[in-house]
Amino acid sequence: MKAIDNILNRITMYRLVLYELIFLLATAATLGFFGMLSYNPISIAASTAFIFFVCWATNNVFAYAFETPYNPESTWITALILALIITPPTSFFDATYIPLAFWASSIAIASKYIIAIRKKHLFNPAAFGVAATAFALGLSASWWVGTLAMAPFALVGGLLIVRKIHRFDLWWTFMLTFAAGIAYFSFDHSLDVVRSFQQSFIYAPAFFFSTIMLTEPATSPGSRLWRLLYAFGVGVCFLPNVSIGSFYFTPELALLLGNLGTYIVGSKEKLVLTLKEKLQLSHDVFEFVFQPERAFSYAPGQYMEWTLAHAHADSRSVRRYFTIASSPTDPDLRVGVKFYSPASTFKQHLYAMQPGQQLVVSQVSGDFTLPRDSRKKLVFIAGGIGITPFRSMIEYLLDVGERRDIVVLYSNKTSADAVYHELLDRAQRELGVKVVYAFSEQGSTIDAELVAKEVPDLLDRTFYISGPQGMVSAFKDMLRGMGVRRTRIKTDYFPGFA
Length: 498
Hints:
The protein is of the alpha/beta class. The chain has helices spanning 2-8, 13-33, 41-66, 72-85, 97-114, 125-137, 151-165, 168-188, 193-202, 206-213, 224-238, 251-265, 345-352, 388-400, 421-431, 448-454, 469-481; strands at residues 116-117, 120-121, 243-244, 247-248, 270-280, 285-292, 303-307, 319-323, 333-338, 358-365, 378-383, 406-412, 434-439, 462-466, 489-491.
């Protein structure tokens, strides 16, 4: 599994989704060539090319009209999803395929610009496109990817995406809800349970839908509680026998209803940020200070998606997820970024930004935040740039003058790598926060012995761990071995961090 994680760590979530969709279409074409699928390679290729062109052209028109920077990768993903759910044409002038593919593709892309509030689209574009076309023209998507031959490829590839973004809680909630619903209806109507499960999972798009579309960060909740409720609600509506009177939900309508719920309870922000200054914090860590176009709300420790459009993006793509380093009390928005060699094209362009230049952020998310009960005793364990969420929390506590019982354990290779130490020192003086530094080059590490020494009441505290994914997992295992309950360990993870 570590080998798989090492590969996944080099690819952003969106690029992984793109690769999976391309793989599924190539697999479908191959299966069609050998007669294992009803559609031949030529019709699949023609459908993909047609939908891709319509999406590309529509996106260029709307991006120009709205004078909005766009991410081409998002357009490609939408096009490939549509190619996998709209039945390929049976002939060159297929009277059913052409209007369905054209209008579903056009509406899907247009919805990103028109069905949007504060520059943030509300609905999954592909789902909205096929739903709107079905309503207006009576032409529906078949979700042909949901077949026996495609099921194993959709499941295995989809689970890689779920693993990448750590959304197994969402996926399992949906699948268990769907399975329980199928079992209930089968028993209630005296149906063959095995056959019902085969039809629902093997001959239906459940695997593709739940791993590719349900998990889209832009239209799914960021907090765990709302995420589980979202998965449950969509799972219920996804059931084939659920209806309101004579009205039955389709997969796209189930997803759109969930998207609407996400918008109601979730972040509604999409902002253009203007760079004010760039500060060097260490030899390889820089802090970027941005001015938002307007004030917005977030909690200390949360993260956002940062989009910096640029040509010839590498496999890491044009989007990243970074924790907000500033406090909500700060009118500016700060992010601390560690630069590795060789740097990705995203970081190269970020580093080259000059004051006055802009990028786009969206999706305020994350549960890695201070507990509401200020009496809870906390331990912050940070490795390297993992100090960022704690910087946000501590600055907030300093600004509002709130004292909490906090121990900070901060690990770095050298003392020169310890960024934000001035803020930590101030927190020691003004708030009584205990800060312990560990520098590996000096032979000091955060291990069980150090934790037991510096945090003698560790079983009474809640631990927050932030840093590289390998470090986070190692510390989590260490604390569990020391008797710390799982419920008292919070880890910082967000899509694309690993």
